[in-house]
Specification:
about 475 residues, alpha/beta, Threonyl-tRNA Synthetase, Chain A, domain 2, 4 domains, ten-stranded mixed sheet, four-stranded antiparallel sheet, binds adenosine-5'-triphosphate
């Protein structure tokens, strides 16, 4: 449609639709006002002043320091600011040398957070959010979610965001790839914020778990905590502690995903208590691969079976029977379990659950194994029994005991829908991308996601790698008499 202007008087122009047809009804549009140049300049000047004041207030500390030093230099010469700065620089250097972690915590990280706030997040905030469709335009006005705070960790940034009124975290979860590319991060996860209407965006700058973690040192017996045995590292660099007391653990992962490293790191963490007679590991090893390496250890400090003709099922049934006897004995006496030599904490380790519950050709054995496992997992927690089951296939039809395992670990999985089957509904949307873990062993083996009790958000972890030599050393430690002979 073409428009033309009609001048009605000085400074009064009217925009009307250009019409070729002389008989058409006239169409009128609002007048276009002439804006005096001086007013335009004034408005722009006010804008610049407001922006400068906002910048100065937001950056009050660096601006005050720099202007103070500048003023000293101007008033008394450049040596004065240097003399003023020197003790501060010396003090900070001394701090770094004396206590680097506290310097990083109180100075390094906040300074990095400030820097990334200004140069990465605030700078790209509007264009990225507009492109990702997270802004709204209403009556010609653009509404933009606001950026509250940035915190920097060793490998990731956490950005606190106030969403638009009426927005939900799902809207952000749907566009995490856009946010990752927009802000130059490897990965973005959406976390619940400190109050309704707010979320934390976690921008992963680099993969802290990309390098294998060597086997952890065997702890002292007094340092072993059955409520949190250290078996690897979390993405934020803190130890990954696996709870064993009062729970059962399911480890799901495709072939080569590193289930063995989770199993062996757990045994390694328990070894001192096994040697002290306070923990027993009963191992069921249908694959005869992973666990057979430490067979001697289980036979001496627990039990071991790889017999497909019924030995493995017998072992499970013996465990269930013993557990029942223990439950009867403890009934009404105690509610919390403390391991002793008489009643050691018993870990029942099943390397491939699906073999016993789905693949075993004998129906009778399958049924017996399933019912022994169901008894152990449903009643064993409070009397010092913990079942650790590993399995390659997370599908429901393969393992319908899954829900009896309160704690579950998802290592690399073949399909995205298996993630929620293992970790529970919504886990993948909350960032548990177990199907995207690298199949290259050095990068992805032993890497997985867990859900901790304290937060519904899945946490990325990596188990330490216990090599064959490490296992040999552990076996040697378990047989000091043989070594001495
Ligand atoms: N935590 C780890 N860090 C680095 N490399 C690892 C780790 N765990 C395992 N690996 C490597 O990955 C390979 C596969 O590991 P592993 O045999 O434990 O997988 P799995 O899940 O038990 O497989 P399967 O189900 O086929 O037995 C191993 O050869 C090992 O070298």
């Amino acid at each position: 449609m073409a428009w033309e202007f009609r001048k009605l008087g000085p400074g009064e122009n009217v925009a009307v639709e250009a019409q070729r047809d002389p008989f058409a009804a006239p169409k009128w549009a609002p007048p276009v006002w002439h804006m005096p140049e001086g007013l335009v300049l004034l408005v722009n000047l006010v804008r610049v002043i407001v922006r400068t004041v906002v910048f100065l207030v937001r950056n009050i500390v660096p601006v005050s320091v720099l202007s103070g030093l500048g003023w000293l230099g101007y008033r008394f010469g450049w040596t004065v600011p240097v003399v003023v700065l020197a003790p501060a620089v010396l003090g900070l250097s001394g701090w770094v040398l004396a206590d680097r972690p506290s310097f990083v915590r109180w100075v390094g990280r906040p300074a990095l957070a400030r820097w990334r706030l200004v140069t990465v997040y605030r700078r790209n905030w509007q264009p990225v959010l507009v492109t990702a469709g997270l802004t709204k335009v209403h009556k010609g006005r653009e509404y933009l979610p606001s950026l509250v705070r940035v915190r920097c960790g060793p490998t990731s940034d956490r950005v606190l965001v106030t969403m638009l009124k009426g927005q939900a975290p799902d809207a952000w979860e749907d566009v995490t790839p856009n946010l990752a590319h927009g802000f130059g991060a490897a990965l973005v996860r959406v976390r619940i914020g400190d109050r309704p209407g707010r979320i934390w965006l976690e921008f992963v700058r680099r993969d802290a778990l990309a390098v294998p973690i060597p086997a952890l040192p065997i702890p002292d017996a007094s340092a072993v905590d059955l409520s949190g045995a250290e078996i690897g590292r979390q993405e934020d660099g803190s130890p990954w502690r696996l709870r064993l007391l009062g729970t059962h653990v399911l480890i799901a992962g495709a072939t080569g995903s590193g289930k063995g490293s989770v199993i062996w790191s757990t045994i390694r963490a328990l070894l001192p208590l096994m040697l002290a007679g306070l923990v027993e590991v009963w191992a069921v090893d249908p694959k005869r691969m992973e666990l057979s390496f430490g067979r001697a250890l289980f036979e001496r400090y627990g039990r071991y079976s790889d017999d497909p003709k019924g030995g493995m099922v017998d072992l499970l049934e013996a465990a269930a029977e013993d557990m029942n006897a223990r439950a009867e004995r403890f009934a009404g006496l105690t509610r919390s379990f403390t391991p002793s030599r008489e009643h050691p904490f018993r870990v029942v380790l099943v390397d491939e659950l699906a073999f016993l519950t789905a693949y075993c050709p004998e129906r009778d054995l399958r049924k017996r194994a399933e019912s022994a496992l169901a008894v152990l997992t449903s009643q064993g927690r409070s009397v010092g029994y913990c079942v650790i089951g590993a399995q390659q296939d997370a599908r429901k039809e393969v393992n319908n005991l899954r829900n009896l395992f309160p704690d579950r670990i998802a290592l690399r999985l073949d399909e995205d829908e298996q993630v929620d089957m293992v970790l529970g509904d919504g886990a993948r949307d909350r960032g548990a991308l177990a199907d995207q873990i690298s199949p290259i062993p050095e990068i992805g083996a032993g890497v997985g996601f867990v859900r901790l009790e304290t937060t519904p958000d899945p946490v990325r972890v990596r188990a330490a790698y216990v090599s064959d030599d490490d296992i040999r050393d552990m076996v040697a430690l378990g047989f000091p008499d043989v070594e001495a002979a």
